[in-house]
Amino acid sequence: MGLFSVTLTLFMIMNPLGNIQELLSILKGIPAKRQKQIILRELGIALVAILFFDFMGEWILSQFAPRMAAVHITAGVILFIVALRILFPGKGANGFRVEGEPCLVPIAIPIIASPALLATIMLYAKTVPNVMDTIYAAFIALAACGACYLAANFLFRTLRETGLLAIEKLMGMVLILIATQQVLHGIFHFFATT
Amino acid sequence: MNFWDMVLRLFLIANPIGVVPVFVALVKDFDAARQRRILLRESIISFLIAVPFIFVGKYFLDALDIESYALSVCGGVLVLIIAIKMIFPDPVTEGGEIVKKEPFIVPIATPMITGGGVLSTIMIIAEQEKNDMNILLAACVAWIAVTIIVVCSSYLNKILGKRGLIAMEQLMGMLLALLAMNIIVGGAQNFMKILQGG
After folding, report:
1. How far apart are the C-alpha atoms of A103 and A146, rounded to whole Å?
2. How many CA atoms lie within 13 A of A176 on its CB side?
3. pLDDT tens digit string along A93-116?
4. Which end of chain A has fewer CB atoms surrounding its CB within 10 Å, N or C?
5. Could you tell me if residue A31 is left (phi over 0), alpha (psi between -120 and 50 degrees) or otherwise beta?
6. Do B78 and A176 touch (CB under 8 A)?
7. CA atoms within 13 A on the CB side of B175
8. What's the whole-model pTM score?
9. Chain B residue closest to A9 (CA)?
């Protein structure tokens, strides 16, 4: 997979445009300047998490040695369910509300560095031929993601709820495509190694 | 490929007539005028999704490393989920009239009108027909027909009545599930061929 592919896929999974509304509701009531600081901090934490899973991914995987097929399918299934929740919203709000200023949870994890993203990073750590590609891709995707979040208020004013909802749904469709492909790749690996 | 060939292909794969009863079931909770508005909007949105695909579909899928069989399987799975939701609708909470959320883009515009099948077909046509504007024109013509049928489906409401609609939702759900499995199996067979070849 080329650098562009990896970057685009990671960016899609991070889904910043789709998460803007959620982000804004979490940051409600906090003064604008502090909001930007929080976002930058959370991006940093997410970066640490991503790098950790990128380098440790190989090690973690070799410790309990799941087959490639299993990792593909797991990443695919998690992403699939994330996409389903976007496309077919269930009742009730997200259960990650904690008192006080958000730190680490829920912005860095799971909004930016979601389990689906981290699983995919681990996957790329193993499968992408050029080791640095995954890291560059993560940096670029994260930077683009950060740009979207820092401009969250502006985007919300411009696109309004309907516009953001439309983007969210379209992103959901793209994610579900990526997820399906991942699961099918996993099945491919399963047969290839049996 | 002949111009009218393309129009016909796009029209048939979008299958507006076949899914009219499904649309009726999906918008049954709203009044007639609103239904027509929703259906018109969804038809336009489905067109707006298909159009960019004509021009950049292939590059987009390549960039994300997605194969054509994934499109089919994905489309099929989505339709299957919709079908199961029709057969087993979400339990209604107590408290009388709940303000139901209007369906937006999903599931009507996509995957029902412009689904995996439409996108796959567009890709196939795009490969054979070098002139993209031609394809766009064919899509316009096909979509005019699609929109007329989709919007008219709300009139089916009056013919069926409330009970008729619920019954039809169940039956259509079942037929849709069959259709979905068909798409999934087709995609899976393409996938298997690649597995065997690879």
Report:
1. 16
2. 28
3. 555 566 667 777 777 778 888 888
4. C
5. beta
6. yes
7. 11
8. 0.78
9. B64
- Phi then psi for residue A12, to 5 deg, are -60, -40
> For residues B37, B38, B39 and B42, what is the CA-based torsion angle, rounded to 10 degrees?
120
Closest alpha carbon within chain B to A165: B104
**CB-facing half-sphere around the CA of B133: CA atoms within 13 A:** 0
| A5, A88, A174 ranked by CB distance to B65: nearest | A5
Nearest Cα neighbor of B153 from B44, B35, B47, B30 is B35
Task: State which amino acid sits at residue B120.
Answer: S
In B, which residues are within 8 Å of A187 by CB distance? 191
Among B residues 61-120, those touching chain A with beta carbons less than 8 Å apart: 62-67, 69-71, 73-74, 77-78, 81, 85, 101, 104-107, 110-111
- Nearest Cβ partner of B106 from A169, A181, A191? A169
Kindly report, residue by residue over A145-188, the tens digit of the pLDDT: 989 888 888 888 888 878 888 888 888 888 888 889 888 888 88
User: Does B64 contact A166 at a Cβ distance shorter than 8 Å?
Assistant: no
Residue A90 has pLDDT above 70, yes or no: no
Chain segment A29-83, per-residue pLDDT in tens: 788 788 888 888 888 888 998 888 888 877 777 777 667 788 888 888 888 888 8
Cross-strand bridge partners of residue B104 = B106
User: What's the CA gap between A9 and A3, in Å, rounded?
Assistant: 10
- pLDDT at res. B91: 67
Per-residue pLDDT tens over the stretch B28-54: 778 778 888 888 888 888 888 888 888
* Paired tokens of A43: 């991006």
Sign of CA dihedral B113, B21, B175, B93: positive
Is the CB of residue B184 less than 8 Å away from at least one CB of chain A?
no
pLDDT band at A144, cuts 50/70/90? Answer: very high
Report residues of chain B scoring pLDDT below 70: 1, 91-100, 198
In 3D, which of A179, A167, A141 has the Cα closest to residue A6? Answer: A141
Cis amide linkage into residue B16, ω under 30° from 0: no
